[in-house]
Amino acid sequence: MDSRKVGVLGGGQLGRMLIESANRLNIQVNILDAAGAPAKQISAHDSHIDGSFKDGEAVRQLAKSCDVVTVEIEHVDTHMLEEISSDVTVEPHWKTLRIIKDKFAQKEYLKGHGVDVAESVDLEGKSEEEFKDVGRKFGYPFMLKSKTEAYDGRGNFVVKREEDVGGARKLFGERPLYAERWADFRMEVAVMVVKTRDGVLTFPTVETVHEDSICKLTYAPPRKVTRETAGKAQELAKKAIAAFEGKGVFGVEMFLLKDETLLVNEIAPRPHNSGHYTIEACPLSQYDAHLRAILDLPIPESGLRLREPAIMLNILGGRAPDSHVKIARQALESPNASIHLYGKGDARPGRKMGHIIVTAPTLSAAEREVQPLIDAVDNQKG
Ligand code: ATP
Ligand code: MG
Ligand code: MG
């Protein structure tokens, strides 16, 4: 199909699903991550690199081995990517990754481009009194967030009252922080956006359900959302991503407030958990779209449509080390369930070990089929 080689910083589940897509087109993907990483397990060639995507020398070596470098994670050294970008194409652009990896800088940037986000205040290097000023300004609760290295809610703290401020500051130690006004949303939604050399396309709007700040379920289409609101979410997501340089897929997480207005929560410059459903439910998956976008291959817009309603259920590490395997086994009995296990080895409570997609002619049929699996997940919780 294409003799160009793609290099990826990181080889977890997102890199693994990207390789599943690349394999079908016979496109070679070189992974930089530890030996035996999930993505490497399903791709037998000797151009993968064992090492850390945080190691400059390893990143340089990856750059030499391929034509386009992309990421499956935003917590990367963008100075290193800036350096290699004189020799190899980096997608999305390192400038985009630099802005997005700092959640506060990302919010400021979006605001500057007319995209609505939750109101936020920089708290880096600020005193306890200045933290309390935020409580007086925003009221309680408000959300304290680490600007960097945050995922699955590890980096967020709900400040419920003024007395919590001291403890919260200690908890985060030296991490750079900012505060966000509480978003009293009625639902969370997300849109996968595809940025190509020609413009911006979107997958459908999905509803995302988080538990303990980790995505648990996605519903495509969202429940109790009008077509008009779903369309507005796609437009907002497009506007947000059009503001950035570079190509590839981006996940846009949004809050749908009670008055039907939308705020962008955050952006992921890569395939995203809320886009897993596209593998089974859309003609092109988010992984197909990412590969095609970074390689300038055609992406027919109607290939991003929803063929059939779909529900995604994440399988997290549970109480027992093999809880996730038990859930996958139960899903084998479910006729419309597609099961994805990531090959991560040991489960820790809350670690993303796999996911299940149920598609059906109607969302309620999918809901009926997925319910026993949700119950099983709830029973195995760590
Ligand atoms: P991810 O794994 O998606 O990268 P993250 O660790 O970066 O997550 P956020 O997306 O900032 O964390 O927040 C996680 C969840 O916490 C959100 O999906 C939402 O449920 C809740 N949340 C975050 N910010 C706010 C807010 N300002 N008001 C209310 N709830 C919030
Ligand atoms: Mg995040
Ligand atoms: Mg998030």
UniProtKB/TrEMBL annotation:
It catalyses: 5-amino-1-(5-phospho-D-ribosyl)imidazole-4-carboxylate + H(+) = 5-amino-1-(5-phospho-beta-D-ribosyl)imidazole + CO2. In the C-terminal section; belongs to the AIR carboxylase family. Class I subfamily. This is Phosphoribosylaminoimidazole carboxylase. It comes from Zopfia rhizophila CBS 207.26. Residues 107-295 form the ATP-grasp domain. GO terms for biological process: 'de novo' IMP biosynthetic process. Its EC number is 4.1.1.21. Pathway: Purine metabolism; IMP biosynthesis via de novo pathway; 5-amino-1-(5-phospho-D-ribosyl)imidazole-4-carboxylate from 5-amino-1-(5-phospho-D-ribosyl)imidazole (carboxylase route): step 1/1. The chain holds residues 1 to 382 of 567 of the full protein. The lineage of its organism: Eukaryota, Fungi, Dikarya, Ascomycota, Pezizomycotina. Transmembrane segments: none annotated. Keywords: ATP-binding, Decarboxylase, Lyase, Nucleotide-binding, Purine biosynthesis. It comes from the Eukaryota. GO terms for molecular function: ATP binding; metal ion binding; phosphoribosylaminoimidazole carboxylase activity.
